[in-house]
Amino acid sequence: MGTLIVSGGRRLRGAVRVAGGKNSSLAVIAAAALAPDVSTLDNVPACRDVATLVAILEALGVRVSRAGGRLTIDARGLRGHVAPYDLCRSMRASFYTAGVLLGRSGRAQVPLPGGCSIGARPVDFHLRGFAALGARVATEHGYMKASTRRLKGTSFYVPRSSVGTTINLMMAATTARGTTVLQNAAREPEVVDCAVFLNLMGARVRGAGTDTITIEGVATLHGNAYTIIPDRLEAGTYLLAGAATGGDVLVEGMIPEHVTALLTKLEEAGAEVVRDTDGVRVRGGELRAVDVDTAPYPGFATDLHPQMVAVLTQARGTSTIRETIFEARFAYTDELRRMGADIKVEGESVHVTGPARLTGAPVEAPDIRGGAAVLIGALAAAGDTEIAQVENLDRGYEGLEAKLTALGARVARGGAMRAAEAGG
Ligand code: UD1
Questions:
Q1: How many helices and strands, by DSSP H and E, does the chain display?
Q2: Does ligand 1 lie within 6 Å of residue 302's CB atom?
Q3: With pLDDT > 90 as the criterion, what percentage of the chain qualifies?
């Protein structure tokens, strides 16, 4: 297990360029495997979750090569219908292989993603959706097994806004017989990105970005070239790191409209936010407490909640953050408390009182975004912090040390890093 050593207490200053979207990439890479053809994807971040999905697809016969940020995906040789357990269990997005295999061959056996440290995160909506599309669906021995000769169009109401369900069903329905209507669909930019690429592949998807998506089934799909959108969660993380350290950070290449809820809250908390056509600059200063409810897009992203709490440890007064998407996303609060934060968890709410004088401590990155919160705490803390399980940060953040160093942070990898690099 690798560690990251952070010498904190320095204001972050400077510019970083945002990477391509991690969650978008996972959806679009999966979508590329729907066509027995070759696709070229640009702006794909080199992070561990992308590497894991690529390894899963390779195990199914897809050939993938990388040159810089470009992935070439040759899915002509996709064969078999059983996704490998060892690779799938660590990552929930591995379940996208279910929609791909069903859409492509009408047969899928995919491990049920295990529990996760941020909540139960079941896949019951996905299974109900596949059944509505006409597949026979069963779960046994830890796998979902689904099969059909050809999926058929249907109307399906997603029981609760779900990014993964929306993307999985949208992919599966592209080659179904007839038209599928998804109601209460997720409106996240990653859903739109996937739909745009599916249409470039010859699919007929309308309404992505609204809560009703219509997919008219087509007989075949073909490969195409596409550029992944910027990562709004990575962008938000660096902006929040700037705010927490009282610094001045410009994130270049991002789409400001994707993080409007975040920027509005940062302004309410007293940070200075400058929106530009190609970037956003945040200047920290005297911050004050604000209340935040996480919500599906365009609401405040649950994946920015932990980092926002790290910032609010430095704000005057008591802030309350209510987590409405993932009921157990609080492991990071124990770590921030070890650094001196005043945080109480009550049901689905976090109460954080500041400004706290944080000091470096041995801590760990409990999950991707929880890890980012711990990192922001470490950057704001006086002295050295050693963050264990840095692999969790590497799941979602490309070039972490290089970007932080460019902003003037002092960070270094601990000794056990080599294994993590080999895996990602
Ligand atoms: C995706 C993102 C994740 C983000 C989340 C919410 C990827 C790879 N991951 O995760 O970073 O935090 O959206 O924006 O894109 N649910 C069920 N049954 C289901 C499916 C979901 O109960 O079958 C629940 C979940 O437990 C959760 C809520 O619905 O409470 C939303 O989950 P969902 O949007 O599906 O999250 P993911 O797609 O897994």
A1: 15, 24
A2: yes
A3: 92
* Cβ 164 under 6 angstroms from ligand 1: yes
The structure tokens listed for 45 are 């971040």
pLDDT digits (tens, 9 = 90+) for 35-67: 999 999 999 999 999 999 999 999 999 999 999
145 with 68, same domain: the answer is yes
In sign, the C-alpha dihedral spanning 238, 243, 245, 246 is positive
Find the helix or strand (DSSP H, E) in which 71 lies.
Answer: strand 70-74
Tokens of 378: 């470490």
Q: Are residues 278 and 144 in the same domain?
A: no
pLDDT (tens digit per residue) in 115-153? 556 666 799 999 999 999 999 999 999 899 999 999 999
Judge if the beta carbon of residue 125 lies within 6 A of ligand 1: yes
Determine the residue type at 308.
M
Domain hosting 412: range is 4-18+230-423
Which of 184, 202, 227 represents a domain boundary (last residue)? 227
CA-nearest of 142, 160, 32 to 97 is: 32
Number of domains composing the chain? 2
- Mark residue 178 as left, alpha or beta (left: phi above 0; alpha: psi -120 to 50; beta: remaining): left
- Distance from the CA of 162 to the center of ligand 1, in angstroms? 5
- Tell me the pLDDT of the chain averaged across its residues: 95
Model pLDDT, residue 118: 62
Q: Answer yes or no: 194 catalytic.
A: no
